[in-house]
Amino acid sequence: MGFCLFNNVAVAANYLLNDRPDLGIKKILIVDWDVHHGNGTQKMFYNDPRVLFFSVHRFDYGSFYPSEGDGSHCFIGEESGKGYNINVPWEHGKCGDADYIAAWDHVLLPVTEAFDPDIILVSAGFDAALGDPLGGCCITPNGYALLLTKLLGFAKGRIVMALEGGYNLRSIANSVFACAKVLLGDKFTFSSPEMQPFESTWRVIQAVRDELKTYWPVLSSKLPENLSLRIKPSPSELYASSDSEPDGEDVDELSGALSSVNVIQFADDAISEHLSKMKLDEENLAVKTASSCSTAEHHPTDSVEVDIDGSVVLSKRISDLSLAWRSDLSRTHVWYASFGSNMWKPRFLCYIQGGKAEGMSIPCCGSRDTSSPRGTMWKTVPHRLLFGRSFTPCWGTGGVAFLNPEINYNEKSYVCMYKITLEQFNDILFQENRLVLEDGKNGNVVYPDSPLIGSYEVEFMSTNKAIHLEPIKDSWYSNVLYLGDEDELPILTMTCPSSDIERYKSGELPLAPPSKTYAATLIKGLVEGKQLDADGGASYINAAAARGL
User: Fold this and answer.
1) pTM above 0.85, yes or no
2) What distance in Å separates the CA atoms of residue 266 and residue 239, rounded to the nearest whole number?
3) Of 66, 189, 263, 355, whose CB neighbour count within 10 A is largest?
4) Domains, the chain, ordered by start
5) What does the pLDDT look like over 478-510, one tens digit per residue?
6) Short-list 115, 56, 64, 114, CA closest to 87
């Protein structure tokens, strides 16, 4: 889908299989390395075992365009085509050569060898290239050349590469040139990337292998032990403006490794604001250049360094700042109003104390302050409850709860309110929007160094009723609503931005009923909170899920 009117590769595959039997092509491998999920191709061949479809793409838990759950690794085909649809969904941006090579070596190539295609069609979008303003990934021309080289050993070298996308002309030119040289038989020497795959890359690869091993026994073997890895990029990197990406001047040399194209930057407005107040002496910051794919990991130390594996060490001043805002906000209390699974207190406490409750597939890391809420109460609010998106890692297939930010006095939605500190509210906001980093090497949990909601933002919301958090504008719950006051404390909740409501109305984003497990969690909250009985809770959820916007 995306910006294409016609799916050239899918049309070509259909033509070869159904209109030209004289060519003897009975099995086709389609490789889609475009940064977006190949949802159109997937739908065309979802039950066709003659086509092995492989899409590696940014997914970001379903929030990256086209923002549909069918880009998840769980979507493997249906009927006779089950097992012939392979999605490798990256959890975040900044994935580069090492991540894609790992997906090739541990998923695509073993399955391709077993499938033994007669021809390979490559949907060659280059918006995952280093320098592309939309993709946010970091594949170098050398990386693309190696990915293509690895496919030459199959289908007797019969490969068609169809140019499909990319939004930086220099990145496209260099990447296509490198691939064309491979197809023309030029000798190619690739130096292993100095960057290692992200920890999340191995987690995704393992999930894909587990999902498909029943259909492809070659994936049943264990991944190598002692894998080298990097930590997930910091929030400031992940949510940096695409305008900060290099425009191509550093990707000219095909034989070069990753170029040194940037230094530390903080695109997060909240972080930048606090840093400007500190008046940091730039002469005291020791900066070593790293590639544009470097990851930022925050630790207290006396200097700022970027080393070769992409880790970033922040100055002690920044660490002190982090402690300062937490100390300040720990003295301010707010009501956090939950309308979704957090209405059930055991589920809510996972965001405070860590762990997972019944029905959850993955645990929460919890808040820095694990104190229980100082009070709980219920009320109804004049906002429409809806269930949007179609998949989450925690609850599986199905929609999750959102409140329409627009006030409608004809609507009534239940909210369970917890009296917590503003520090805890920020930690919940971090977790809800996946801004907490987990260090795969030593198990540490790293939170952002600056709050998204401070006293100023609360005052702003009391006048303007909402604040859309620009640093996390693409996240599902980036809109913080002010719902009034209770006992002279503000009532806050988090939901989708108004722009997402318009996308739901147009059908660009899917509305979907909740999974049985997720719905049961909401019902338990309503029942244990003595708002509705089980039947009434089910009717309330079903009615919200059934109505259009």
Assistant:
1) no
2) 9
3) 66
4) 8-220 (3.40.800.20), 330-546 (3.10.490.10)
5) 999 999 999 999 999 999 999 999 999 999 999
6) 56
